[in-house]
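S.,

Sequence below, as promised.
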Amino acid sequence: MTSPLVIPDIWSLVDRADTLPWQSFRPGVEIYRLYGDSEGPSAALLRYVPGAQVPHHDHTGYEHIFVLSGSQRDRHQTYPAGSLVINAPGTDHAVASDEGCLVLVIWERPVAIREG
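The prediction came back faster than expected:
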């Protein structure tokens, strides 16, 4: 039996984000995968530099975004640290961070990036 992945103090990730092995995700956005990959259910931390964005995409399953620091925005509003945003299957948006942010994202299914 596999032991659960436990992050005892989720807020401590903000202070130790620089110690994680980040990988490039999109221009100005880095990813640290907690589990999964781009093919199925997954969870990751995303770190945005100020002004970075993720292009318009469709949700094929639920997407949960927990903003740990900074703020993130879409066409609906700006979500400050402490916000939990749940995007349902069949919804779509583009995401940006004016000031930069660190978010925990949990995807039920992969998102479909709109090309062009």
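The domain at 31-113 is CATH 2.60.120.10 (Jelly Rolls).

Coffee later?
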